[in-house]
Queue: 2 jobs
Job 1
Amino acid sequence: MKDVASASALAKQDGPLADPEQVRTLQQLAQALSLLLAGSGLSVRQVASRTKHDPVPVARETGGKMLRGERLASKAVTLALVTHLGVAVPDLAAWERAWHRAFLDEGGVRTAPPRGADGRAARARHRAPRDRPGSAGQAEQAE
């Protein structure tokens, strides 16, 4: 695995899109993140595995969508990703500003997973309420 300095060096030498200060759109953010990933020597799966127990994990699917420019993940997830790709803490502010510019370019709306007619995430399952003392379910049974 390459060290943090080489990942930062790659980001600087590969052109303006690797520089977070040049990022203006979601696609540019995706390109910059892809350069960081290439410089880190890690795969999206490895990043997901390493962050699984972190306060802000980066799921493999989310990381992949971010890198393809299909999704603007939360700022916290984006910063967790760049941290694991070798960005030093003092440089995180530049990546946070890049995220904000991409967010504004997307109309100030994060792209999110498709939602069902009820407004819940498509993969969420409806669960029937449990019968608890004082709940409507128990009151009907008591009658």
Job 2
Amino acid sequence: MPTPMLRFRGEYLEDVASGRKTCTLRFRRPKFGPGDRVRLAFGRRDRPTILEAVVREVVELHIPEEVEVARLILEAPSDEEAERIVEALAADQEGADPPPYAEVLDRACRDSGTDLLDLLADMVHANTDTVWAIWFEVVGA
């Protein structure tokens, strides 16, 4: 079986090669798991720059509640209505324990360089409530 490939925009090459970006978030279930070797492809499809990596961890994050809140905010008829939704949610969550996946989601966003709100907006647009966090380690860079 050929080595699986993860594609990235060319601008991420330096961050991945230096170890500043060690995770990627994908909306499709990966066909590989921890310990598998993958190829990271950057830039043009016809002549990508390739780095070899080993997958360290893969976590499925199913977050329908967060995606639904993001959908409500994005579809709000006005900025005032969106602010009202955010304020009501903040009041509801005050003093509540964070969900069990919160720490993993925060780590995935931090390690991938992704803003949580941007991720949620992308999930609304992709019409999905599940994202896979894939941590990797570049080898031989």
